[in-house]
Write a structure and sequence with these properties.
Chain lengths: 360, 360
């Protein structure tokens, strides 16, 4: 037997339920690799996050990014803890990784799995199946800004949103390429050019320019308020949706909700040029309210692992893992409490691993 | 009989379906006034909007705001037309009115009316009944910003979000006062302080400071992404929700969607100090796709009129008009196409006017 290809993965469980769902994903990934036989994983764990911050005053060591740089991919759990301000925890770990490694695409499927009930009346898996492409490096998330007259009644706080031609063009190009391969061949852009008068008209301009180069892709655009409403009223409309950092963030949590549970939704932070490692993480947060109880839904993390498999060149193995998730939910009926079931993280994970044998 | 009090109202139908739903609201308002007997209306119409722009290059005359200043209230339809860029039409009419007249509160009920079906599975009128208080004067909607290196590959576009202590304190105070009188006594704040690192932590600070002064109000906060998801998964959770200009905008369109139709939702742009006229308008836009067909849902506009009645000191008449809307929808079963019926704007309006006789 030829020796298997080895993928070196940096694993950052992070905080809260990250410590429960990440081991679940590693178990599922090992199982897929064992069945496939053509590759295996070498996982290195990094104990970074809010505990590390409370001990050291930093979310990761000063050379943290250097330590990660050589890996084939990063698997992240969730970041955030009630005793650390969110803007500290996120700007100290998650956001620098996304930016330093130019993971400018945040790819987030919105897909109702079989066996899961959507909160939308009368909607089934055929109605909710699209992809959101979120700009992941610039835009409204910025640490540029400041305060004037702090602590006085005249206090003024300013925050800059910064959009660059390079940044908007590359995300649009990725989205159009994806839409071209999507069964619906439709790309919908999220804007707010009626209220936000510099950056959003620019976003629309680049969208229009790019659309001219992809005449085979149908396009439309909605203001973010109307678009959020449309996720609820017309989910079947969408093929690929492209949005800025903030709008993509809002739409994908909403997307996770209409697809049945925030605990299910996966995401891939991609550096499409593969100069740097890409990162895979569920959409959900660290969920301090249920952390340590063993009831967190591991599906979002495991599905993120399936996206990682695809990125690493194993699309068949990725599809198989997703099929196993769906089999466990639909055919075995195993569900965690967020889905109305009573399975533990462990039971859900085992059901998925066992289902691997029963799917193509 | 004592002579009736006269309310002078500036009426701006605006664009698109504004021309259809505004006359409907005037008819309903006249009918309520006639039944009540203690007041009547003097409506002055202003033909401002995109047609005016296409003729004159301006959305309203140079002294437009001066013309409006002396009115008791403004009733607005909708603004926007495909041949005028949105940031031109909105910054030329709607947004200057909101700002010049310090209508810093945008009050938007999210209420599922009897007779209307929510797109959320299993949710009825008891589950969806809350109020969003949207900051309406500053924040993310700003015309401060600019472009560098325009037209080159190095183009950079910057937009400023600007939050002031005065602005945030006054909207928080209004929201806490409202929450104190709300049956749930709960105020939920929309934030995004994990990604947006100056303005949103400031928003949270003021929220915390104000909460200390209202110990009788239960408070919580969610990041806007999680909050949008929660509108879908836990609508019954909410009493009063407070959000910035952009977040309030997104949440209220989403709120309109879960409450059955964007065509139903009303809003009040309030200057609580009553130094300037307040403005009442539906949440929906000018809907060019259905304009001129006579099928627009007039409920959002008429309900906005009911909010105007309350503001003008006639809360009983306002409640009566809302009860008539609900009676027409639930008892008469009259519904426009957006609600799954086939009534025209005219038929829906008549059903509401006739229902006025049958409600207290
Ligand atoms: C038309 C637009 C500028 C406006 C807004 O975003 O304020 C509208 O969406 C609203 O909610 O009243
Ligand atoms: C934690 C937070 C900064 C993050 C984001 O908004 O990007 C999260 O919500 C996400 O969607 O990955």
């Amino acid at each position: 037997m030829a020796s298997a290809q080895v993928h070196r993965i940096a694993v950052i469980p992070g905080d809260g339920i990250g410590h429960e769902v990440v081991p679940a994903a590693l178990e599922a990934l090992e199982a897929v690799a064992a069945l496939d036989g053509s590759f295996r994983f070498a996982f290195d764990r990094f104990p970074w996050g809010c505990d590390h911050y409370l001990e050291t005053g930093r979310m990761m060591p000063p050379d943290g990014l250097e330590q990660l740089r050589g890996y084939d991919a990063i698997l992240l759990g969730a970041v955030g803890h009630p005793s650390v301000p969110d803007h500290v925890s996120l700007w100290g770990l998650l956001l620098p990784i996304r930016r330093t490694f130019e993971q400018y695409v945040n790819l987030r499927p919105v897909k109702l799995l079989r066996g899961v009930t959507s909160p939308l009346r009368g909607r089934g898996p055929d109605d909710i199946d699209f992809v959101v492409v979120r700009e992941n490096n610039e835009g409204e998330y910025s640490n540029a800004g400041g305060r004037l007259f702090a602590g006085t009644p005249h206090e003024i706080v300013v925050q800059e949103s910064i959009f660059t031609r390079r940044g908007v063009e590359r995300i649009m190009r990725f989205a159009f390429e994806l839409a071209r391969r999507h069964p619906k061949r439709r790309l919908t852009s999220a804007t707010k050019s009626n209220g936000i008068s510099y950056t959003m008209p620019f976003w629309d301009e680049v969208f229009r320019e790019m659309a001219a180069r992809y005449p085979d892709v149908a396009t439309d655009q909605f203001h973010i308020d109307a678009l959020a409403a449309r996720f609820v009223t017309h989910p079947h409309h969408f093929g690929v949706v492209v949005g800025s950092n903030l709008f993509g963030d809002i739409l994908t949590d909403l997307g996770a909700a209409i697809a049945g549970s925030i605990g299910i939704a996966p995401s891939a932070n991609l550096n499409p040029e593969r100069q740097y490692p890409s990162m895979f993480e569920p959409i959900h947060g660290s969920a301090p309210d249920i952390a340590g109880k063993g009831i967190a839904n591991p599906v979002g993390q495991i599905w993120s692992g399936a996206m990682m498999l695809e990125h690493l060149g194993h699309p068949r193995a990725g599809r198989r893992l997703l099929a196993a998730i769906e089999h466990a939910l639909a055919e075995r009926g195993v569900k965690t409490p967020d889905l109305g079931g009573s399975a533990t993280t462990r039971e859900m994970t085992q059901a998925i691993v066992r289902s691997l044998d029963e799917v193509p």
